[in-house]
Design a protein that fits this description.
By secondary structure, the chain is mainly alpha-helical. It has 6 helices and 4 strands; from the N terminus they run αααββαααββ. 28% of the residues are buried.
C-alpha cells in the first residue's frame, strides 16, 4: 500500500503548509481525523488485507474531506453548491465516504453481510458528526453547520452506504465489486404437499 500512503502523506503535507500560511488552526482537527483514519486502516490491513484499489479510494476520501474543510469558500468549500439548491459538495463527500467505507468493510472481510457493512459505515458517519460537534465547542470558526446540516449529512451517509450495498449485491460483472466476496446464495429445495419445490 505504499502508493496510497505516499499520496496521503503528500496532500496532508500540502494542506499543513497551506493552513500554516493562512494561520488556519483548524488543520489540527483535520490532522487528527487523518491520523485516526490511517491508524484504523493500518490495523485492519495487519489482520485483513486491504486491497490496493480500496486503499486508493480511502486515500481519495481523505483528500475530499480536507479539501472541503480547508479550502476557502462561503465560508469553506464544503458549503459550495455543485448543483444550485440541489447538491452541495458536503453532501457528495458524505455519500462518497460512506459508500467507500461500506465497500472497504466487505472487501477486507470485516463484515460478511452488506447490512452489517452499512451499519459500520453509518457508525463512522455518526462518529464524525460527534467529532464535528466537539470541534465546534473548541473552535468558534469550525464551520460545522447546525442541526439541519448534520441531518443532511446523515441522510447522505445513509444514501451512500445503502447505494454501495445494493450495487455490490448485484455485483455480477460489476468492476466495483471484484475485491468483495459476498456470501453465495444457498439453493435449498423444499417439497410442498402439492409436490412443487420451493427454492430459498
Amino acid at each position: 500500500m505504499t502508493g496510497p500512503i505516499r499520496i496521503t502523506a503528500l496532500y496532508t503535507a500540502a494542506f499543513v503548509a497551506f493552513s500554516v500560511a493562512r494561520g488556519d488552526r483548524r488543520i489540527v482537527a483535520y490532522l487528527l481525523v487523518i491520523a485516526t483514519a490511517a491508524a484504523v486502516v493500518a490495523l485492519v490491513h495487519r489482520r485483513h488485507r486491504v486491497p490496493t484499489n480500496v486503499a486508493y479510494a480511502l486515500s481519495a476520501c481523505g483528500l475530499l474531506h480536507v479539501a472541503g474543510g480547508l479550502l476557502p469558500g462561503h465560508p469553506v468549500f464544503y458549503e459550495a453548491w455543485l448543483l444550485p439548491h440541489v447538491l452541495k459538495y458536503d453532501q457528495l463527500v458524505h455519500f462518497t465516504i460512506t459508500a467507500t467505507i461500506t465497500v472497504a468493510v466487505l472487501a477486507t472481510g470485516l463484515a460478511k453481510r452488506p447490512l452489517v457493512a452499512v451499519a459500520m459505515a453509518l457508525a463512522a458517519g455518526i462518529g464524525n458528526e460527534v467529532f464535528e460537534y466537539l470541534s465546534s465547542l473548541r473552535y468558534a470558526d469550525a464551520y460545522v453547520g447546525g442541526s439541519t446540516n448534520a441531518a443532511w449529512d446523515l441522510v447522505f451517509d445513509t444514501f451512500g452506504a445503502a447505494t454501495a450495498a445494493v450495487v455490490l449485491l448485484g455485483r455480477r460483472g460489476n468492476p466495483l465489486a471484484r475485491s468483495v466476496r459476498l456470501p453465495r446464495r444457498v439453493h435449498v429445495g423444499v417439497a410442498t404437499p402439492e409436490g412443487d419445490e420451493l427454492v430459498v
